[in-house]
Each structure stands twice: as C-alpha cells, then as structure tokens.
C-alpha cells in the first residue's frame, strides 16, 4: 500500500516529459467522481494499492504524477477521462425584456429538467455535462430553439478551472450519480457511492 499525500508534477509539463521518456509508467485510472475525492483507495493498472490522502482543496488532474522513483525510473500517473460539457450562453437573453427573460429561462429549465440533466449555473452561463451523446443533446437544444440561447461543447478538463470543487462535483460527480439513482428506481444494482469502486480489490 502506497500512501500518496501530494502531487509530484504533471506529465504534460515539458520538464517531466523528458524525465518520463523511457520510464516505466503505471496508471491510476479514475472516473470523474473519483477524481474529485481527496481520500480514495484504489489499485493501479499494475495492481499497486494506493491510498490517496490529499489536501482537501486538491483534486487530481489528468496526467498528475502521484509517485516517482528516480532510481527505478518508475512513475504512477493519474489518468482521468472527463466528459465534455455543454455550455449554454444566455448573454443575449439577458438584454431582452423581463417577460422574455422569464419565459426563456423557464422553458430552458423545463427542457433540461425533462432530460434529468444535472447543471451548474454561473453568471449567464449554464454548464451541463454530457450524460448522453452530443448529437442527442444538440437535437434537444434544437427542438427547444429558444431565442438568444447559444450553446457549445467544450472539453471537461477546460471547464474545471472555472468551477469551485462543489460545482465540478455536481457536473462530473453528478453525472454518474444521476444515472445511478435512475437505476435504483428501476431495481438496478445498487452502487455504494462512497465505497471502493474496485471490483475485486477489497481489503
């Protein structure tokens, strides 16, 4: 069991890229939910048991180096695959009449709620994680083509810096949570959200 209390660096950093060339790299593959946690136990792809014990405000980014052994040239690197995020921009709507704003916001909220999509509102932007295929989300937005409402898709990793930890948990943790809670209503298997998502690596 290796205890990880901090990040050594990030593999995308040019300084590290040269050091990691030819190194033995082991991956800790995390989903969006796990990446938000500062406490976690999980095995790497080479079956090394890790216990993360990070500072509360730290969350892992894709490519973070969790452990590095210079003599062995061995590294353990976090691999996080963040979903894309749809950003709905309401800047144009806000300059409309109050009545128009209220109607548009209500209809937009109704459309998103109908799909059970989690969302985070910041200023005049609404962030929605891609819980379904991008084409499906685009067609829902087109169906409800609301005046002044613009949207675009952006990589999850690019959105994280703009969000507070609780917001990114809602976006990225919330996405898997929402689908889990859906399964429960239909008698699906119950997931222990805070337990070890380890499947066969129990201690």
Topology:
Elements: E1 2-4, E2 9-10, H1 14-20, E3 24-30, H2 32-35, E4 39-43, E5 49-53, E6 64-69, E7 74-80, E8 85-89, H3 91-94, H4 98-114, E9 120-122, E10 125-129, H5 134-143, E11 150-154, H6 156-159, H7 165-185
Parallel strand pairs: 1-5, 3-7
Antiparallel strand pairs: 2-6, 4-5, 6-7, 8-10, 8-11, 9-10
What does this structure look like?
The protein is of the alpha+beta class and 203 residues long. It is 33% helix and 26% strand. It has seven helices and eleven strands. The strands form three sheets. The protein has a four-stranded mixed sheet. A four-stranded antiparallel sheet has the order 9-10-8-11. The radius of gyration is 20 Å and the shape is elongated. The N and C termini lie close together (11 Å). The C terminus is likely disordered.
Helical segment count: 7
The count of β-strands is 11
**Helix content range:** 25-40%
Largest sheet: 4 strands, mixed
Cα gyration radius (Å): 20 Å
Strand order of the largest sheet: 2-6-7-3
Low-confidence stretches: 174-203
Distance between the termini: 11 Å
- Overall geometry: elongated
Structural class of the secondary structure composition?
Answer: alpha+beta
H and E string: EEHEHEEEEEHHEEHEHH
* Beta content: 25-35%
The chain-level mean pLDDT equals: 84
Short description, anyone?
By secondary structure, this protein is α+β, with helices and mostly antiparallel strands. Helix content is 33%, strand content 26%.
Key words describing this protein structure:
26% strand; 7 helices; alpha+beta; 203 residues; four-stranded mixed β-sheet
């Amino acid at each position: 069991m290796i205890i990880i209390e901090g990040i050594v660096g990030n593999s995308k950093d040019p300084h590290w890229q040269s050091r990691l060339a030819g190194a033995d790299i082991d991956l800790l593959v995390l989903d969006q939910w796990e990446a938000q946690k500062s406490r976690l136990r999980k095995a790497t792809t080479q079956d090394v048991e890790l216990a993360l014990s990070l500072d509360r405000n730290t969350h892992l980014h894709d490519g973070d180096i969790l452990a590095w052994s210079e003599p062995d040239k061995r590294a353990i690197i976090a691999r996080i695959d963040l979903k894309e995020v749809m950003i709905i921009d309401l800047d144009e709507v806000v300059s409309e009449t109050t009545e128009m704003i209220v109607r548009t916001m209500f209809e937009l909220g109704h459309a998103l709620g109908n799909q059970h999509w989690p969302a985070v509102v910041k200023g005049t932007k609404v962030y929605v994680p891609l819980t379904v295929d991008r084409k499906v989300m685009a067609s829902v937005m087109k169906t409800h083509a609301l005046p002044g409402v613009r949207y675009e898709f952006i990589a999850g990793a690019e959105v994280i810096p703009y969000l507070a930890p609780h917001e990114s948990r809602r976006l990225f943790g919330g996405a898997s949570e929402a689908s889990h809670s859906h399964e429960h209503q239909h008698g699906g298997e119950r997931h222990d959200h805070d337990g070890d998502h380890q499947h066969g690596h129990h201690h």
